[in-house]
Structures are given as C-alpha cells and as structure tokens.
Structure prediction request, 138 residues.
Amino acid sequence: MNTMKILVAGLIGGIFAFFAGWLIYGILLKGWMPSGMAAVQRPETEMVWWAMIASNLLWGIFIAYVFVQWANISTLQGGAVAGAILGFLISAAFDTGLYSMTTLYATADIVKDVAMTTVFTALLGAVVGWWLGRGYVK
Prediction:
C-alpha cells in the first residue's frame, strides 16, 4: 500500500532530516547562517522541540510523497537529484519572497540559504530514494 510506504519512508527521512539538520545547520555551517537570523533565532535552550520534530517529519513525508505518488523515484541518485531540485525551487521561492517583504535576508543570504537547503534536501532525497528502492534489483 502506498500510504504505508510513504509514511515509513517519510519517518526514515524525517529522522535523517533531524540529524542532518543538526549537523549541517547546527554545527558545520553555524557561522554561515544568514545575517538577519541572529536577531530572530531562539537560543538552543528555548527551541520548540515539538515544532522542530514536526518540521523534519513533514520534510520527510513531503519528499516520500512526491517520490512515491508522482515521480516513482527509488534510487539514491534519483532521490538526490530530485531532492536537490525540490529544495532549490522551494527555498528560492520562499527566500526571495521573504527578501521582497522583510529585512530578514540580505541578497547574499538568499544565495547561502538556498545553497544550504539544496544540499540538505539532496541528502534527504538520497536517503528516501535509497530506502524506497532497497532490496530491489533495477
């Protein structure tokens, strides 16, 4: 059943997204975050954990849904490419919208955030694609 396949792949993707986000955004690129974020970012002790967990699970389910229902992606490479494209388009649309209406981002910050999100969703897509195709000979 596709619903169970999407939910399991989404859960695995969401767990991966949580730890990958912590590694990428929280450790490796912490000093590279957009300049306006410092003014609005919560300290680690005040983070809203249920929302962070929900966000990561929703990313995983979104990617799994697209891969299963629309794109029929079931390989690591196909998942990485599709994840990168989805991440690029979503973050570019979101960030340019924020830039047009707020002072949160400088122009260079858009490039930084889009690059980080593209890499993040490429990795997420790779994991979900791999999971969906594991054990099958193509």
About this structure: The mean pLDDT is 91. The chain has one domain: 2-37+48-133.
